[in-house]
Specification:
Length: about 325
């Protein structure tokens, strides 16, 4: 079979060589990729490919049509909403890398909570300017109420990291999780979670039902001193409504790692222009360790498929 990478996996070439050794030994053709390439180059690469490796870049219908032999897409990402539905029509299997980014994403979510509530960026800037803490005294995370929206792997990891802060935990998900309950989460309706939480951390997948779920109506129910963190998917939050809520003083601020488009963002982007929003360039998933885990899962997906027992299969 022909296996083609069309996006880099952000690990050293030596690690890709190690992970792909079995493919070579078994006589498969393997084409690696270590730099970002254009869509035109991607389309040229996938001709006659049986398996392709992608991450979170857009996969166009044109690219899929250019690969008539395509049987599997191994996705180096958790979400698969960037994969076109035409794959379902063509019976192309989609396998994701669920679990690789649980730790770094949860860690950044908690980091943004702490940074935003203690005004870390403003405080650092003032210190470098020779000024004092005046006007920048923040609030504590300890003993506050934290709402976890989406209590899957990442949401539960956030809960574990918060244990030392002795917070009260509220949760919302379409399916209640017994393990999450044992960890101290009290499930409540979404509106109740928003109105009672001091901090809200979003960990929902992007689906038709979650797109725009955090809207003006929900944001208007939040406490004035509340902080919302989004390390999930950009489009689940109405960004215009978020900026309006912050500018009008309805909520204190936000920490945002995801947007309606992938970074780099224009410097004039509304979420970057607001000093009460701590913005990072979709980096929550990316740590040295998580990139290695991702690469391992991507290749394990391929080997499991070749062995006749595919894993991490996702529906579109």
């Amino acid at each position: 079979m022909k296996i083609v990478m069309i996006e880099p996996l952000s690990v050293p070439k030596s690690y890709i060589s190690f992970l792909s050794k079995r493919l070579i030994d078994e006589g498969h053709e393997f084409i690696s990729c270590f730099n970002e390439i254009t869509m035109t180059e991607k389309i040229s690469r996938v001709k006659n490919a049986d398996i392709i490796i992608v991450t979170n870049g857009k996969v166009s219908e044109e690219l899929i049509e250019a690969a008539p032999n395509l049987k599997l897409i191994s996705v180096g990402f958790t979400g698969v909403d960037h994969i076109p539905s035409i794959c379902k029509e063509k019976n192309i299997l989609i396998c994701n890398s669920q679990g690789y980014a649980t730790i770094p994403t949860a860690e950044l979510a908690v980091t943004l909570m702490l940074m935003r509530t203690r005004n870390v960026i403003e405080t650092m800037d003032k210190c470098k300017q020779g000024e004092t803490k005046n006007g920048l005294v923040g609030t504590e995370l300890s003993n506050k109420t934290v709402g976890i929206v989406g209590t899957g792997m990442i949401g539960k990891k956030v809960v574990k990291l918060l244990k030392g802060f002795e917070v009260k935990l509220l949760g919302y998900d379409i399916l209640e999780d017994d393990e999450a309950k044992e960890m101290g989460i009290k499930y409540v309706p979404l509106k109740e979670l928003f109105s009672n939480s001091d901090f809200i951390s979003l960990h929902l997948p992007l689906t038709d039902s979650t797109k725009g779920i955090v809207n003006k109506e929900l944001l208007d129910t939040m406490k004035e001193n509340a902080i919302i963190i989004n390390c999930a998917r950009g489009p689940i939050v109405d960004s215009d409504a978020l900026v309006e809520a912050i500018n009008k003083g309805k909520i204190r601020g936000a920490g945002v790692d995801v947007y309606e488009i992938e970074p780099p963002l224009p410097v004039s982007h509304k979420l970057l222009a607001n000093e009460k929003i701590y913005a990072t360039p979709h980096i929550a998933f990316a740590s040295k360790e998580s990139m290695e885990r991702r690469a391992e899962i991507v290749f394990n997906n391929i080997y499991s498929f070749l062995d006749g027992s595919p894993i991490n299969v996702k529906s579109l």
